[in-house]
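Re: beginner question about structure tokens

> Can someone show what the tokenized structure looks like for a real chain? I only ever see the sequence side.

Sure, here's an example I had lying around. Input first:
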Amino acid sequence: MTSTALVLRSDGIGGLLTVVPALRALRRHGLRVVLACPPELSELAALTGAVDRILPAYGLAPLSWPGPGEEDADHPPLLPDLGVNLHGRGPRSHRVLLNLRYRGEGRRRLWAYANPDVPWIRGPWWDPGENEVLRWCRLLQWHGVPADPEDSALPTPLIASPAPGAVVIHPGAGGTSLRWPADRFAEVARTLTDEGLPVVISGSSRERPMALLVATRAVLPPQIVLAGRTSLRELCALVAGARLVISGDAAMTRLAAAYRTPSVLVSTADGRHPILHEVGGSVPLDAAVPASSVVNAAVRALGAGVR
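And the corresponding structure tokens:
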């Protein structure tokens, strides 16, 4: 009988994208994969081709097995015999998996990074400066499972892009010092529109007010604001068919990379993107990055491409 691995990665889009190579490595190793993640990520999980089912999970709240609606099934899913912590260094995330029980039965094995608070768990030591994709591949390799960090590409969803060939601007949410301000995103959107490029503004329902503010300050019609109007699958199709993604959220640049779409990230330092600015101390992000620098980076990215 095929063994089942319960994998914990219970945060957002960006976190899930960092574990795609590890999930695929587990599947190639012959394991059935149950992913504990927020259920709203189920469409993205399906696109990885490596997840058999989702177990709803939010943050580090206790997990419930076999899952909502399955407790009274005639043949509920068997409790996984392996837990894989692709969420964090522990010990809390370790214990979320260790504490999983169903009808008195507990999980047998756990693959996770070593942590002195759970000394009986064997694993490699955590490197806080390590790239996240490499980190989770290294964990599996320590357990004898080869993992390819480059195996991160996603298939284009079988759904039409809401705006094929557009420049996608994804400002993210407002009200945080780590976000580039709406005025700067608006200036970039206006400049690119004046150059004849189609521009749309993406985001979640929660981020729609910020997206509408950017469009208003750029004097662009509200119809270009797709924030809150796309499913996750439609967002993937949008990014897959985009000319360029400009974002204040690293999750969107990770999604762009999965589709080999050029991207510009206005965020903290990370050498994988054309323009990145690390701001230390009390210097605010908006004082460090002028809109003209992002426009110039966008032009370079459009010229070079990565497809």
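Each token stands for a local structural state, so reading them left to right follows the chain. The radius of gyration is 21 Å.
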